[in-house]
Design goal:
The protein is an all-alpha fold. The protein contains five helices and no strands.
Length: about 160
Amino acid sequence: MENENSVNPSDNGQERGVLVVIMLVLSTMSAFFGLISNAVFYWVSSGASGIPEEEIREQMSKSLGMFGIPADEQIQDRIAVMLEYAPVISSVGMLSALISAVGIGMMIYRRKVGFHLYTAARLLEIGVPLGVAGGLFFSPLTLFSSIIFILVYYRHQRSFSR
């Protein structure tokens, strides 16, 4: 016998669109990847990894060189600023990924608060880098994908129960 108060993802008499299911899967993957990548970024940038900062700078310069970006003084200054703000930005990234994962879990069970948590996490992930480091960590891809995902979820929000 099933508990009458439990929420079943297929309840509410409305079918969930294929697009929404795909978006939920992609969002879940993105949240967990964001959590892992930000944790590694924090570990390396905070010095906990034991890798000297000079070696990190050298490797970052080499990786930029692979894309044809010369490691001039301006790039070195940007790398220094990036390393300075990296622990704060990566901590916010981890928090944002956790909030996103909780929001996604709630949206799977068609709870409207999940949409609001997911939206707040996306805005946090976009806004903090702009405010803290002047856009150095800003990713147009993150902005674009967040806008698309939020719009799709908003459009299907009426199928969420509460």
